[in-house]
Design brief:
By secondary structure, the chain is α/β, with parallel strands linked by helices. 42% of the residues lie in helices and 24% in strands. It folds into 2 domains: 164 residues, Spore Coat Polysaccharide Biosynthesis Protein SpsA, Chain A (Alpha-Beta Complex), CATH 3.90.550.10; 82 residues, no CATH class. The chain has 7 helices and 11 strands.
């Protein structure tokens, strides 16, 4: 089979879901897996012809791993609600999965937008995500955040791109910063990571300098400056979350010895 299911996982994505699904009309099936939105997302998805399933959210990886076997077709395309498939990418996907020489999975580059402006540098320029794959050959590694897709077989790259409208305002950014910092800190702690006062002092400014100078953030103008500053804020927030987890562990240890 060369038919395609496009999967979008959602929670309160009413501002994004209509434009996202309208760009996926080339797929044979639109499958929206919603974690009980309260802002009208399910109604919009149904109106646009998507098959809607609702499932309790545990993590991004777990939600997608639950969704993949629900797909009706042999090929699956995973799209986030804030991503847009271009006409060029849609045509390339259709041609790729129809080829007898198709690989088992394909990575797609994302062009990232911040406050409506495309960020071409600042560390965002090499953002590849594996999202197109044979349904029975891939699953996400179960991590809390930034979970990679593990594909059984050969993985290629497509020329077309996603348009990723990640943050439309700073109000969008702050809740995600705290959430992702906490999740990444929990993952880091499970790997045995610890932070020292020296690390907490040095990490944020070094992260800024890496983004702004080495990764070309200055070439993105004032928007690049803001992105690089936020990269430094995120580094500080993650370190503080790890530090707080360390403190909790240190308090528990004497109690466990009693």
């Amino acid at each position: 089979m060369t038919d395609l299911t496009a999967i979008v996982t959602t929670f309160n994505e009413a501002d994004h879901i209509e434009e996202c699904l309208s760009r996926l009309a080339f797929a044979n099936e639109l499958l929206v897996v919603d974690s009980f939105s309260t802002d009208g997302t399910p109604e919009i998805a149904r109106r646009l012809g998507a098959r809607l399933l609702q499932h309790e959210y545990g993590s991004a990886a777990a939600q997608k791993n639950w969704a993949i076997p629900q797909a009706a077709h042999d090929w699956v395309l995973i799209v986030d609600a804030d991503e847009r498939v271009t006409e060029e990418l849609a045509a390339e996907i259709k041609g790729t999965i129809a080829s007898p020489h198709a690989r088992d999975g394909y990575a797609i580059r994302r062009r990232n937008f911040f406050l409506g402006r495309e960020i071409r540098y600042s560390g965002w320029q090499h953002d590849w995500v594996t999202r197109l794959f044979r349904r029975d050959r891939a699953r996400y590694v179960d991590r809390q955040v930034h979970s990679p897709l593990a594909v059984e077989g050969a993985v290629g790259r497509l020329r077309g791109c996603f348009l990723h409208h990640s943050y439309r305002s700073l109000d969008d950014y702050w809740p995600k910063l705290r959430r992702y910092a906490r999740w990444n800190a929990q993952e880091a702690q499970r790997r045995g990571a610890r932070v020292s006062p020296l690390h907490m002092m040095a990490h944020p400014p070094l992260r800024f300098l890496k983004s702004y100078l080495l990764q070309g953030g200055f070439l993105d103008g004032s928007y690049g400056l803001v992105v690089c500053l936020l990269n430094a804020v995120y580094a500080a927030a993650k370190d503080l979350e790890i530090w707080e987890l360390q403190r909790k562990d240190e308090r528990r240890q004497p109690e466990a010895q009693q």
